[in-house]
Amino acid sequence: MNKHTSELTTSDNVRPMAARWIITGEILLETAAHFGGEGDGSVDMTILRDAKDGGPLLPGTSLAGALRSHLADVLGGYRSPEHRDVTVLFGVARGDDNGSQSPLIVFDSLGFLPGGLAVEIRDGVGIDPATGTAEVHKKFDFEVLPAGTCFPLRVELIVEDLKQEARLLGLLIAALDGLTEGAIALGMRRSRGLGALKTRNWKAIRHNLTNNQGWLGWLTCDHENPIPSEVSSYSSAAEAIRSAYTTLEIKLPVDHRHRLLVDLDLALAGDLLVRSPASDAGAPDVVHLHSAGKPVLPGTSLAGVMRAQALRIARLVRERHDDGELWVDRLFGPRLEKKKEDSQKEQAEASRLRISESFIENGSARRQTRIAIDRFTGGVVQGALFDEEVQAGGRLHVRFELRKPEDSEIGLLLLLLKDLLSGNIPVGGASSVGRGFLEGTARIRLPDGNEYAINSGLAVDEKTRDHFNACIKAFHEAKPLKQREVRS
Fold it and tell me: Average pLDDT in the 53-68 region?
């Protein structure tokens, strides 16, 4: 026995372990989310489900990828090459066979739907930028998990060298802080508000594997509930980790992210209708979109009309340079279209402008009966009587985030905000009959930390006006863009 033990501890193929951390928490979806699974024919895109009990599944690989991406942004800035310290926590990138194994283990998670709610189905369409209407054969539907769905979270950190423990924990806290602060979204259409989340009930425990007691504590802990109930819970992973090892000095890495944040407080000037199919026979033909039982303005709808308006503005302002579409692609991401010369698709790229999905508060549902008119006879089209249930009034909070912005791009966004706040960008369907108009105020935080306000009626103070005019001037006077500069 002693002989075998001696061989085991000296073998180069055995991973040394000086300490092992277990960190748990809960992820709570704040908006609907789609984690893609295999289709079953009922919808075009289904959610990922556990093969055993059919519940929603969040793969550990997906969560680890999101954490890795966030840490890379913190260490190097948005859209920068991955910083070398990322591999210290997550191991080498895929395809590199010469690196080490990741010391971080991220577990799969089985989710729980909120009481009384089920998986939702949403429609998606492709919009023709020229006409502003849906493109032919570009409609699809997909399943989403409702807001309030909860996923238990568990990660474990293996410390091979105690001298590196503080560094590893600093990197881990920086990665997990992306969940705590809401900087990480999960699943499809993250830049359009889906997959937003918050966390709660963080706990951490450390097993010292330099002595027998530590080994026994880890080996005999309950696999399903590895942290005893008497361990205190915290609102962030950082607090939980520091409380589990109070004598260790943990320093967080410097945050190199640069972003513009815009918080909008908006009110519906009239009715709003983002069409959704009715759920039962007695319901109207068309109802406004709801999620988790509440009316919402999806980020996809707002982004679609803002992109169309941005294209009009950019084409007008940049007419002499003929690069308006390239400016819009820089903010919203390139549209995926086949190239005529070689029939190959454009490379996909996420939008740098992230737009939240927003619940509408203090409004009401209003049922309306409408008819279709024959434009030649002026009479009612036979069989064209239908009911709609619109969202009447209400207030909502919307957040825009522009990552790695330049002054000229901020100028284009400011022109968009002016049109949105003054009611010149209608959202949703039936805007021709006066629906979907918004008005409100905005607070803007620039990458340098300075904050500016746009008050009711687009009123701003002199300092704010001067700074905004400088950004808009930068957009007017920027050098012509070339195709390769779109993905800067």
Answer: 92
